[in-house]
Amino acid sequence: MQRVPVLRLGDVLLVSIQVDLADELAPWLQEDLADEIVATGARAVLIDISALEVVDSFTGRTLSTIAAVSRVLDAETVVVGMRPAVAITLVELGLTLHGVRTALTVELGLAVLHGGPTASLAAPAADDLRASP
Amino acid sequence: MDAATTARFGALLRGHHDGLLKDWTARVMGGLHGLSEAELGRQVEELYAALLTAVDEGGTLDVGGPASAELRAVLAELSRQRAQQGFTSTETVTSVYALKEAVTEVLDTNDAQQLRDFVAYSALIDQLGLFTVEVYARAREELISDQAEQLLELSTPVVKLWDGVVAVPLIGTLDSARAQVVMERLLQTLVDTGSPYAIIDITGVPAVDTQVAQHILRTVVAARLMGADCVISGIRPQIAQTIVMLGIEFGDIVTKASLADALLHTLRAGGYEVVRRPPRDA
């Protein structure tokens, strides 16, 4: 089975998930990302899920876990490109992707990481997310 | 109706063609208001002709049978028209039942055979009436569902207010179906326009209860999951009181009294500065 490639963009790691995060793939991705953050000293992880049409609770938990692991390694996680249908499903399932920041596109995600204007509106919310375990 | 009775019915319709037609039209006229005599006359004539065709073709007359296809079509058309013109079901069916009364007039009720026939005719006309009511009800239901759909389409626009700011002016009661449409539209627009800010304006929502609040909250949470932030605006004083009394918590979601405030807020958050230029001296 192929692994999900982790690309390095300066001090940001970019992961584009193209296939369903199957059972073995999720822990591999977690391991790869943790290794890569330590190896490169990356400041942030950008996960693009625009190709995912279905996000179940397992995938949601994986994303939350990645965010938690990254935070321990002092890197922020931003999930970008979530589809409307996926967002609606997650809300209906009651999953809120705890501890994960989100952005519409990769570009906006980078802006969020660089403290761009988009990050300021939900400043209290973002603080909450960062503070929560 | 068996073949012999049908044949006698046909003969009766033919024998008293003009008299029955006139009497029928007059009786329909009495029960309906707002239709011209000429139009009614034409409708009844059409119905009469269809009835004759059904009698001639079938041998035996049966409302559900293949020979009555044209009769059914004419009745359905009439019924649909009446439904669209706003007549009640009683007024519509009276147009059919009036034939029964007209037929009574030309029959000799002292004659046992004719009386037996009349019972058969009467049953037939009842069936025609029932068919008419069914079509009428169906037409009304179609009308209602069409209107509901149009209303749904009409009342959920998503507008772009600024580069990166979209707004949904909600108007009318927010039930689950509408909330779903609003959510889908808004999220899709966020993706299409790449807007990181959305304003949900509830000026036009007559009342906010826990369920409506729940719908709005879910929309905001979904938008957040996608990476866009929502501001809720257009909260009238009364609604604000209700929200507090119901104990609805909007958490860290920004709420503003007016759409203008909300736009200003999002502009500032987006890094814009709104400055009023001092008037130029002449």
Give your account of this protein's structure:
- The complex is a heterodimer of chains A (133) and B (282).
- Mean pLDDT of chain A is 81; it is low at 117-133.
- In chain A, helix 1 (25-40) links the parallel strand 2 and strand 3 (44-48).
- Chain A has a single domain, classed as STAS domain (Transcription Regulator spoIIAA, 2-Layer Sandwich), CATH 3.30.750.
- Helices cover 44% and strands 17% of the residues of chain A.
- With 133 residues, chain A is of the alpha/beta class.
- Chain A is globular and about 35 Å long.
- Chain A starts with 5 loop residues before the first strand and ends with a helix.
- With 282 residues, chain B is α/β, with parallel strands linked by helices.
- Chain B has two domains: 3-151, Orthogonal Bundle (Globin-like), CATH 1.10.490; 159-269, STAS domain (Transcription Regulator spoIIAA).
- Chain B has helices spanning 3-15, 17-31, 37-58, 69-85, 89-106, 112-154, 176-193, 210-226, 237-246, 259-269, and strands spanning 159-162, 165-171, 197-204, 229-233, 254-255.
- Chain B has a five-stranded mixed β-sheet, sandwiched between helices.
- The longest helix of chain B has 43 residues, at 112-154.
- Chain B is rod-shaped, with a radius of gyration of 32 Å.
- Chain A binds chain B through residues 78-80, 82-84, 86-88, 90-92, 96-97, 101-105, 108-109, 112, 116-118, 120-122, 124-125, 128, and chain B through 183-184, 187-188, 190-191, 194-197, 218, 221-229, 252, 254, 265-266, 269-271.
